[in-house]
Every structure is written in structure tokens, then in C-alpha cells.
Amino acid sequence: MCDHAGTTLHALALLRDPAALPEVLRLLHEVPGDLPRREALTESAVRVLDALAAPEGIPVLHGLLDGECAVTAAAALWSAEGDPEAVLPVLARELGSGRPHRRRAAAETLGRMGAQARSLVPELSVMTRSDEVWQRTAAACALWRVTGDPDPVLPVLRAAWEENLYTRGTIAECLAGMGPAGRPVHEMLRTEVAAPRRHRARTGGYGSHDVLEDERLLRACREALSADRMLRQG
Q: CA-to-CA distance for 199 and 87, rounded, in angstroms?
């Protein structure tokens, strides 16, 4: 039951279907506490609220800010309410929680908040020096979106690009958003686009998921390079 409901809610989040809202709110209010894997189901429901930016969900989201879904609830609350004071303390706490997936999710949410998250720039800067490559990548992308300063970010992205092939899609999308500010590392993108043998094939992948991820990577690389080229010509 839980698996099926979670899958359905994930699909509704992708579709951003407002018709899902009453059922999602009912689920968050009524699902039994002893239901196996409740947190996975709650997480999926909160993601629907995030996708819909639904103000009707604000009260229940406030109630989830101290639980296992705190980061997801904070992200959804930001979408629905846009109040940095309500979510920054939660995200600051999760950046220091020591749980890698929650730290990364908190950084990504701060990136969505942009300049409204400036008070946590010191914490993001520390995170760019993490021992874990995905932590550094998430923090660097968020730092760019919060400050608009490429100088402390580009070296981190370059190092992550070389260290872990699977960070490249995320990094390329960040660079696409940076426009000409990312120009010092654009040679990485040109090399990636020109490579005849894809890295996912070299690492034993290339199922349907690998193909989609590789297409996402190449699309982001081309978008960044195309935007820069248009600016140069203009």
C-alpha cells in the first residue's frame, strides 16, 4: 500500500495536478503513525505540496519542520509562503546535521531561495570544503545562486567534475544558469559534448536511465555554450 501510494504521489508531483491537493492533505493528517515506511509516504506527499506551492498546506508543513521530512517540508513551505524566517533556522540546522542526504537537500533548497538565503553563506562556504563530492557540488551550486559570485564556486565545480562523472549533469545545469560567469570552465563542457564515447557506457551503464541522464547532461552543456556564444555575438 505504502509503495503504491508513494509512487502515485510522486507522479502527481511531477504532473503538478491541483486535483491531488485534498487527498494529499487528508493523507498527511490521517495516515496512522504505525504504518510501515510512513516517512517515505509523507515525503512524497510533501513533495506534491512543494510542486503545487499550495497555501492550504502551510499549517501541516509547519508541523513537519521538526521531523524526518524537515528539509522537504521547509522547501514546500518556502514555495507556498515565501517567508525566509520560517525556513532558514530549519535549513541551518540541517546543514549541520551530519546526515549527507539532508545536508545536500538543505543546500539545494537554499539555492532555490537565492539572495533570501544570504545569512547562511558562511555555512555553505564551509560545506564546499566537505570530504564528500556531492556535498561540495550541492553547496557550490547553491552558493552561486545565493551570491551570484562565481569566483569561490568554479574551482569547486571543476574539481567535482573531474572527481565524479555522475556530478556532471548537476554541474552543467548550474553552469547553464550562470551564463558568461561560467566561461572559465566552459572547456569542460566543450570536451564533454565532443566526446564520442559516453562515460556512462564506460562505467558499465547505458540502460534507459543512463541514456536519459546522458541526454540531460549534453543538453545542459549545449545550453550553457549556446547562451555564451549568443552573448559574445551580441
A: 38
Q: Are 77 and 58 in contact (CB under 8 A)?
A: yes
Positive or negative torsion for Cα 152, 153, 154, 157: positive
Label residue 41 exposed, middle or buried (CB < 10 Å: 0-12, 13-18, 19+): buried
Taking only the tens place, the pLDDT of each residue in 154-178 is: 999 999 999 999 999 999 999 999 9
Question: Cα–Cα–Cα angle for 17, 19, 23, nearest 5°?
Answer: 110
pLDDT digit string, tens, across residues 21-48:
888 888 888 765 545 447 788 888 898 8
Q: What angle do CA 145, 148, 149 make, to 5 degrees?
A: 125
